[in-house]
């Protein structure tokens, strides 16, 4: 039995310790916002926060997440809510498949840096592939979120 803390809730799951965290989140716990993309940790669609750090959940065994705080796209935080509003206002998503991972990476960035530069945004968003190429809109949405936070 493995106990996971996901979005503030405890989940006792009976799975093999080497099961990827992604499958536990999606198939066992039922939180389907985190997406399966490549399965080899390159695309970022499966990104979650593990103790406030963005990780590719397809590469993390559930045993490594036990005792840690996991936050998925369904988790609510001030930065995530503001980012989602900015994403919608600037029409960031096209197909939308990568967006949960993009939003998680942007949330982690803004949790650590209240006013990132373009270079810092680019660095934080490495490992998130957008097939539609909305990288400029993503960067604009992050900057818009910073401005919204400054306005209160």
- Helix and strand element order: EEHEEHEHHHH
The 3D shape can be described as: globular
Quaternary class = single chain
How confident overall, as mean pLDDT?
Answer: 94
Distance between the terminal alpha carbons, to the nearest Å?
Answer: 44 Å
**What structural class do the secondary elements suggest?**
alpha+beta
Portion in beta strands: 5-15%
Task: Please tell me how large the radius of gyration is.
Answer: 15 Å
How are the elements arranged and paired?
Elements lengths: L1 E5 L2 E5 L7 H9 L17 E4 L2 E4 L5 H4 L3 E3 L6 H12 L9 H14 L5 H7 L10 H17 L1
Parallel strand pairs: 1-5
Antiparallel strand pairs: 1-2, 3-4, 3-5
Helix pairs in contact: 3-4, 3-6
Explain what this protein looks like in three dimensions:
This protein has 152 residues and is α+β, with helices and mostly antiparallel strands. Helix content is 41%, strand content 14%. The protein is built from 6 helices and 5 strands; from the N terminus they run E-E-H-E-E-H-E-H-H-H-H. It has helices spanning 21-29, 62-65, 78-89, 99-112, 118-124, 135-151, and strands spanning 2-6, 9-13, 47-50, 53-56, 69-71. It has a 5-stranded mixed beta sheet with strand order 2-1-5-3-4, sandwiched between helices. Helix 3 crosses helix 4 (99-112) and helix 3 crosses helix 6 (135-151). The radius of gyration is 15 Å and the shape is globular. The relative contact order is 0.16.
């Amino acid at each position: 039995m493995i106990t996971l803390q996901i979005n503030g809730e405890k989940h006792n799951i009976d799975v093999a310790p080497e099961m990827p965290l992604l499958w536990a989140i999606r198939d066992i716990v039922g939180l389907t916002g985190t997406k399966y993309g490549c399965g080899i940790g390159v695309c970022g669609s499966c990104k979650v926060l593990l103790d406030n750090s963005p990780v590719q959940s397809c590469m993390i065994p559930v045993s490594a997440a036990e005792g840690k705080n996991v936050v998925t796209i369904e988790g609510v935080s001030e930065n995530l809510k503001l980012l989602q509003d900015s994403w919608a206002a600037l029409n960031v998503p096209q197909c939308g498949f990568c967006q949960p991972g993009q939003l998680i990476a942007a949330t982690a960035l803004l949790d650590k840096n209240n006013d990132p530069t373009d270079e810092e945004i680019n660095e934080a968003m490495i490992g998130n592939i957008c097939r539609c190429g909305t990288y400029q809109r993503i960067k604009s949405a992050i900057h818009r979120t910073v401005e919204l936070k400054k306005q209160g």
